[in-house]
Design a protein that fits this description.
Blueprint: H1 2-12, E1 23-27, E2 35-38, E3 43-45, H2 58-62, E4 74-83, E5 92-95, E6 101-106, E7 111-119, H3 120-128, H4 131-141, E8 149-150
Antiparallel strand pairs: 1-2, 2-3, 4-7, 4-8, 5-6, 6-7
């Protein structure tokens, strides 16, 4: 979606240009725009450089921008369910008293994808449950909002 939007913006805006190359180096000189050396041999200057190359961004690291990381000691458990009641193309999210976060995302027909962010030990417990126990536990947590659920 983002790529399609960017492609369309570039097509209709003469001030934008798409360059199919990765950034090898970024240099900052006083009183000028940053200079980028690209993998295709080009060198360009840009008023704005956005490091959007992932969580482990080589571009961000190359210019010395640090990030703070913190492990929440959690896992996300994902499962797809068929619902007795239509979800009406609506996503839901619950913040449980335990600190867990439970999301229900609509899929085609009467199916939903459940994403349960929980502590590591609880995630292990959930993954050991059989299909019926899973369905029952999920239904309880979402207050039977979509009726009977089948894994």
């Amino acid at each position: 979606m983002i790529e399609a939007t960017l492609t369309q913006a570039i097509r209709f805006n003469k001030n934008l240009q798409s360059i199919e190359a990765s950034v090898d180096e970024v240099r900052f000189e006083p009183n000028t725009s940053p200079t980028l050396s690209l993998s295709n041999g080009q060198t360009i200057q840009a008023k704005l450089v956005i490091a959007a190359d992932g969580a482990n961004s080589p571009l961000r690291r190359s210019v010395g921008i640090e990030i703070a990381q913190h492990s929440y000691e959690q896992h996300a458990v994902v499962a797809n369910f068929t619902c007795a009641i239509a979800h009406r193309e609506t996503a839901y999210q619950w913040f449980l008293p335990s600190g867990d976060i439970l999301a229900m995302l609509p899929l085609p027909q009467q199916q939903v994808s459940m994403v349960w962010s929980t502590q590591n030990e609880h995630a292990k417990h959930l993954l050991q449950m059989d299909s019926q126990a899973w369905s029952n536990q999920f239904a309880v947590e979402v207050h039977d909002q979509l009726g009977e659920l089948r894994l």
